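hey all, quick one before standup. I had two proteins in the batch that finished overnight and I want to keep them in one place so we stop losing track of which output belongs to which input. First protein below, input sequence then structure tokens straight from the run.
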Amino acid sequence: MTKTLKIDFVSDVSCPWCVIGLRALQQAADRLKDEVALDLHFQPFELNPQMGPQGQDIGEHLQQKYGASAEQREATRAAIAARGAELGFTFTPGARGRIYNTFDAHRLLHWAELQGCQLALKQALFEAYFTDGQDPSNHDLLVRVAGGVGLNEDEARTLLASDRFAEEVRAREQFYLQQGIHSVPAVVINDRHLLQGGQPVEVFEQALRQIAAAE
């Protein structure tokens, strides 16, 4: 008998480890498809909530925020690209030149959940930023990506031009911060089990199997 596990995937669309975590989680669930089904919900987290509308050069940003040298940044980029390739995702070298504000992307994702299209939008936003090097704060891009996954572009544009869902997104962000989540991805299973980071497929597989058996 297949057991459904509720997954709250707390993440940001500008977080490369969130891409890796999601792909690994999905592949783990595919291995367990006769045992486990995922009820997947993406919850908002902003790595850089104070980021201005013009964004910031990513090298400068990482140096300021983490003190990472150019050599360290390059090593991390290579490791992320390798993990992505293993999981079937392309991190295009040099595509991610700037870091941007992602709040409007999270508002769009909130709406997409209500439309039953959240996973498709999340994946498309990851590809737009990490594979194609596009700006996830740009409303024209967000509208185009929304349309590409079957959402109504006129409704998306109207939403983005307003402050719709701003209060709801901020409330969700605060909830997870108050739960002690300060880095992502954070994968909350059935509201009480937590896995953090871009774990290997095998780690997610073992966790899903154990939780499903216990529940």
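OK second protein, same deal, sequence then tokens:
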Amino acid sequence: MRLSLGPIQYFWPRDQVFAFYDDIATLPVDIVYLGETVCAKRRLLRLDDWLALAASLASAGKQVVLSTLTLIEADAELRQLRRVCEQDDWLVEANDFAALQILTSRQRPFVAGPFLNLYNAASLCVLQGMGLQRWVVPLELGRAALSDILAALDERPQTELFGFGHLPLAWSARCFAARAHGLPKDDCRFVCMDHPEGIPVHSQDGQRLFTINGIQTQSGAVHDLAQDIAHILSAGVDILRISPQARGTPETVRRFRAAIDAGETVAVGPEACNGYWHGGAGMDRLSS
């Protein structure tokens, strides 16, 4: 099984992003997704910067995929989306159907991101005929449902599973990070840069329920499937995705690589969740 590193979900300073990928180039991760997927206002890195990073990582032996925005709200964002989808050097992960339309109209192979809501074999078959090479399993799809889908396919695309990180649950036209600081979205002052791992949201009894990341709502707990490695290996999953965190990503990559190579489960933190994989509530931590 291969390991992938998903796109950075948070807003980090430019120098931090470049230093992060310098480290990633030396780690045992096979596929790296690059690009802004959350908020179009996060423009410290332009497309040319992402392309330069792509070339550098490819020279280090990584397969590079460019990821697209998940929520398109303006003409300028659509123009940027076209630039990503119309370049010919790198595979593209489509995170909304605007990207899918551009890629299929150009007869380009593509990765179907986890937010295209592909929940059955018939949908996958249609997209395979349009150029789908790989799909990232929707986050709430569990092991049993995934097995049923894969069993119904005559020809399976590469299957990628979100294995570690705060689960990206929803997007909004409003910016919750700006609102938390008493600012309007149009004058957000990029306050999400002050929160490199998001803003925790707790219930009245102190439980961390969600994480706010600009216009994105994430899970409160970190989704961690390290203790489920043995079952994932037998479920038809080809690639396991790690979502970058501001701290500890190299250690996470090494931990998952060692677990996969050994074919064994490993311990996870007490606050981790894995409920979706077991068909339960995503915030739960369940045993196989």
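Flagging for whoever picks this up: The chain has nine helices and eleven strands. The domain at 2-167+222-267 is CATH 3.20.20.70 (TIM Barrel).
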